[in-house]
Amino acid sequence: MELENLKDDFRKQGLGITAISYDSQKILREFADRKHITFPLLSDVDAEVIKQFGILNHNVPKNNKNYGIPFPGQYIVDQNGIVLSKYFENNHRERVTMESVLIRNTDWKPGSSGKIETNELIIEYSASQTIVRPGNHIMLLLNIRPKKNMHVYAPGVEGYTPVSWKINQSDLYRGGPVEFPKPEILEIAAIGEKVPVYYKPFQILQEVEIAQRQILEKNLGYLNKRAKLLFEGTLSYQACD
Question: Helices 98-105 and 2-12 sit at what angle, rounded to 10 degrees?
């Protein structure tokens, strides 16, 4: 359903969608009709393609009725059949969301969740989606615009405080590595320095893994009703004009 809801967004980015499973054509047709799926579903009954790609879920024993399922994941493939990127998890209860895949591979952007303005910066923050499920791997985004004539120091700078983002860790989610774009090099001739900075708009990304259902229910209550999950963190920086 996630793919179906995002199919137009993928197409606008020049990407088509298809899915493959070990189910029969009959089962896939019934599923597509029931769920109103309009993109192609490919049947790999003997899991031959799944095995060739090396994504057979070996956590499922051969005598189990579910034997043949792949590890959950996605490939981005170009028109020549070259794999450009792939996203897979060892735990079948975890999923990299399709919105996160769009963010990683295209210019697609989610709507802004909020905005903060300081004397030096304008910061818009958002997540790849506003509704998450147990085991989702989502993206947090900080879009930062230095004000006129301002720059902030980038990671790797020496002698100054680099911009940094630190999410508050929680039992409900786990933050992954923080990703920064390549900085510009600013030459300060008066003091003979060359330093990495950001003076144009830039984006900070962080993947966040949502906890499994039992942990969420322990902390938030029964999940049949929506519960609010709040991400908090600290953005630090040193800015100069």
Answer: 20
Percent of the chain residues past pLDDT 70, beyond the cut: 98
Residue 187 amino acid letter:
E
Please, are residues 208 and 175 in contact by the beta-carbon 8 Å criterion? yes
**Residue in 67, 93, 107, 118 with CA at minimum distance from that of residue 209:** 93
Ordered domains of the chain (ranges, CATH): 2-103 (3.40.30.10), 114-240 (2.60.40)
pLDDT digit string (tens) for 70-121?
888 999 999 998 999 999 887 878 889 999 999 999 989 998 789 999 999 9
Q: What is the mean pLDDT of the chain?
A: 92
Beta strands 41-43; 19-21: pairing state:
parallel
> What tokens were used for 173?
């989610």
Name beta bridge partners: 164: 236
Residue 170 is classified by DSSP as B
Distance between CA 28 and CA 17 in Å, rounded?
A: 15
- Given a cut of 80, whether residue 169 has pLDDT beyond it is yes
**How much is the pTM?**
0.87
Q: 210: which strand partners?
A: 173
| Residue-wise burial string across 210-224, b where 16 or more C-beta atoms lie within 10 A, e elsewhere | bbeeeebeeeeeeee
